[in-house]
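tool_call predict_complex ligand=zinc ion
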Amino acid sequence: MRRLRLCCADCGEVTLPASEVTVTGTAEPGRVTCSFQCPVCGGASEQGCDVSAGRLLLMGGAKAKPATAPVAPPLGLADLVLLRELLNRSDFVEIMGRTG
Ligand SMILES: [Zn+2]
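tool_result ok
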């Protein structure tokens, strides 16, 4: 079994068998999430990576999980109108910085 190298938020770099890793699609195009249980601290860990890295993990034996329902609903027309209005404002960056 191939071992994959991933990064735990607490322990840093860890290696674990590919079968212990789950690659999940995200709402964001081109991005996937690799989730695994850290072999060192036992905590659930997640690592975002791009699709090509995710594909490599899958080829190495990781499990795939289809994307779950996105947390935020997709943008509707009203959101786009609002966004367009915001973009026309000179203090747009400031507003976004405040909410973020
Ligand atoms: Zn850990």
